[in-house]
Amino acid sequence: MLNVQLIVPYFPIVLYKVELSDAVSTKILRYFGIEINVRIPNTYQGNTYLQRRATELNRSAKGPPYVFMFTDLDSPKSCAPELIQSWVKAPINPGFFLRVAVMEIESWIIADRDALAAFLSIPVGRIPSAPDDILQPKEFLVSLARGSKKKSLRDQLVPSKSAVTARVGPEYNSRLSEFVRDDWNLERAAAASPSLERTLNRIRHAKSASA
């Protein structure tokens, strides 16, 4: 989950929950030739902090610096437009980009099936072609990693049996961030994930409008 600021002639400010979200946002923005200028980690407060800041950031985003906020939908009981409106509670200013991954950031990562299958050393057929429909994508990605032929990856991504409360392995965020930077293909992923495609289209539209 995360926050980014953007628009083409200006550098973005990024607020993010975990390293993995930062890696995905960076990849998206660099795809459009946008470099992040300020990163603000938000590791402990999660969506509560982002939601609290949304109204203020939207109000300030009438001109540079522009803001791109990114978060996860998390629950199938919600939809992205409802979440956006409940957070902002006002008309969206042109410089404020609140984008929602359906259901989680892992959905977008899973969307590049070819790259993920190669990374995990698993058959591509194990990966669904509609990642936005996976209700618990983080857990699903971990389950895929359990079937990896690479012991090192299993140790990094899958929680050990002794880690009773852990949902992911000790190097889950850092290892997947590396995968995003080096192997994840944004265009392939967007072709399979409507929520990612909407995010790219929103940025694309803003870039065209500012040209």
Describe what you observe in this structure:
- With 211 residues, the protein is of the alpha/beta class.
- It contains ten helices and five strands, in the order E-E-H-E-H-E-H-E-H-H-H-H-H-H-H.
- It has helices at residues 19-31, 46-60, 80-88, 105-110, 113-120, 137-146, 151-157, 172-182, 186-192, 194-210; strands at residues 2-4, 13-16, 38-41, 67-72, 96-101.
- Strands 3-2-1-4-5 form a five-stranded mixed sheet, with helices on both faces.
- Helix 9 packs across helix 10 (194-210).
- The radius of gyration is 17 Å and the shape is globular.
- The two termini are 29 Å apart.
- Mean pLDDT is 85; it is low at 1-11.
Radius of gyration: 17 Å
Instruction: Write down how many β-strands occur, each being a DSSP E stretch of 2 or more residues.
Output: 5
Instruction: Indicate the low-confidence ranges by residue numbers.
Output: 1-11
By DSSP (H or I, 4+ residues per run), the number of helices equals 10
**Major sheet description:** 5 strands, mixed
Instruction: Name the strands of the widest sheet in spatial order.
Output: 3-2-1-4-5
Distance separating the two termini: 29 Å
**How much helix, percentage-wise, in residues?**
40-55%
Write down the overall geometry: globular
Estimate the mean pLDDT confidence. Answer: 85
Q: What structural category characterises the helix and strand content?
A: alpha/beta
Share of residues in strands: 5-15%
